[in-house]
Design brief:
The chain has ten helices and six strands. With 271 residues, it is mainly alpha-helical. The protein has two domains: 191 residues, Up-down Bundle (Rhomboid-like fold); 56 residues, no CATH class. The chain has a two-stranded antiparallel ribbon with strand order 1-2. The protein has a two-stranded antiparallel ribbon with strand order 3-4.
Length: 271
């Protein structure tokens, strides 16, 4: 984020206040135009080939295309407004504006790479959703206004769909997915890397602790019994043997002493 801090010091004046509200108002207008089947809405879709022919308004107007034209789109616009406003409050105006602009320009880049592909603002809204889910994973949504679902589960489903597309989709679909997650990777890639490293270290430490707990602490040098096999049995270290050899209560006084501390008569007998 040091690069973003430097950019903010020099370009902070370019931040757009209430950017999400501005987009939502435009999409609400687009929704009503689409519901009324107004021919003007056809000029809002981003098609690279037509933009190259001079229809430059498409480079701007596509961001105001709503995710659909049904009545439920109002709920989608409300969620987008809520999530975008939360991100703006969390990051500040400049960082949120930069996040949206990266998605905006990556969408335009794909439109020029695939000039016949019809582009909308769907992936921009999707990237805002993924960022919000990353920062507020425990936030609950009422699915179909009834079923409470934590937003992280919806994000997992989204990521699963993206990974499936990257694995089995065609070149066009893969390019669209990559462009849609570019800003997310740029903003959260380092954080994800550190979380993965921390998770791996935690799993390794946990595995070591579990392994240590499963190993016996006391073991009889004669019969090999441990406290894992019999928790009531008592273990002692023999004072007449070298080292720290332990013996169970059955063999503490019934074993051959080892080392220089063994009694003389026992050493002579063994020799």
């Amino acid at each position: 984020m040091k690069l973003i801090d430097r950019l903010e010091r020099h370009l902070g004046f370019l931040a757009i206040p209430n950017l999400t509200l501005f987009i939502v108002i435009g999409q609400a207008i687009g929704m009503f135009l689409g519901m009324s089947q107004h021919p003007l809405i056809d000029q809002w879709y981003l098609i690279g080939a037509q933009a190259l022919q001079g229809e430059y308004h498409r480079l701007v107007m596509f961001i105001f295309l709503p995710p659909g034209f049904g009545i439920l789109v109002m709920f989608a616009l409300y969620l987008f407004l809520m999530m975008g406003t939360a991100l703006e409050n969390q990051w500040g105006r400049f960082r949120y504006t930069l996040y949206v602009l990266i998605a905006y320009f990556s969408t335009i880049a794909v439109a020029f790479i695939l000039p016949e592909q019809v582009m909308t603002s769907a992936y921009i809204g999707g990237s805002v959703f993924l960022a919000f889910a990353w920062l507020y994973p425990e936030f609950e949504l009422l699915l179909f206004f009834v079923l409470p679902v934590k937003i992280k589960y919806l994000a997992w489903i989204t990521w699963a769909g993206y990974l499936l597309t990257l694995a089995s989709g065609d070149a066009t679909a893969r390019l669209l997915v990559l462009s849609s997650i570019l800003n997310f990777v740029l903003f959260f890639g380092v954080d994800i890397y550190h979380r993965i490293r921390w998770g791996h270290r935690t799993m390794k430490t946990t595995a070591t602790r579990i392994k240590a707990k499963s190993q016996a602490f006391h073991r009889c040098a004669i019969c090999g019994v441990t406290e894992k096999e019999d928790k009531k049995i008592d273990f002692r270290i023999c004072s007449q043997c070298d080292g720290t050899l332990e013996y169970c209560e059955n063999h503490l006084h019934n074993h051959e002493h080892r080392g220089s501390h063994a009694p003389v008569d026992e050493i002579e007998e063994s020799s």
